Amino acid sequence: MSHAGVSTAGPQWYFEDVVLEGVTETPAITVTDTHVRMFRGLVGQAGEDVGAVPEILLMCLSTGLGWRIPQPPLAVLAFLSIDFQFVRALAVGDTIHSRARTVVKRPMRDAGLIVEERDILDQHGDVIQHGRFTFLVARRPK
Question: Which whole-number Å values give the CA distances from 58 to 36, 44, 54, in the listed order?
Fold first, then answer.
């Protein structure tokens, strides 16, 4: 069953639940050569150097780590934009996690606009990537 394009099979985190300036952190994951090989295979770069971690892979892994935080998934209706900077490279064997902070929360008629600033950090706490994600998020059904 769905409401306004959002699955309601389980608990959802709606626009009203998002806290302005609220911070969430994901658990960590160590980037392995298997991650790199699988990613390169998916994007058609199977023969390239495994030691170099593709920058976009880290964004993908950190997004997946968001599913491991102890809150229901955000009821995203649309992914509107991404503005991301790759600060420095990461090597196989390094560990990453991400920290997101809600910097904009703007209500609209049937939904709301949410902007998150997100940092991907290594095991030393150094920022590897930084950027902003903009989402259109469902309002709580009445």
Answer: 10, 17, 7
Q: How many domains does the chain have?
A: 1
111 is a domain residue: yes
Q: What is the enclosing helix (H) or strand (E) of 41?
A: helix 33-42
How far is Cα 69 from Cα 28, in angstroms, rounded to an integer?
Answer: 11
Q: pLDDT by residue (tens digit) across 87-96?
A: 999 999 999 9
The predicted model gives 91-112 an average pLDDT of: 96
What does the alpha-carbon distance between residue 54 and residue 42 come to, in Å, rounded to a whole number?
12
Does some domain include residue 5? no
Question: Does the pLDDT at position 5 exceed 60?
Answer: no
State yes or no: pLDDT of 43 exceeds 90. no
Residue 23 lies in a domain: yes
Question: What range defines the domain where residue 94 resides?
Answer: 10-138
CA separation, residue 127 to residues 50, 70, 89, 114, 131 (Å): 22, 23, 10, 22, 11
Tokens of 129: 């990537």
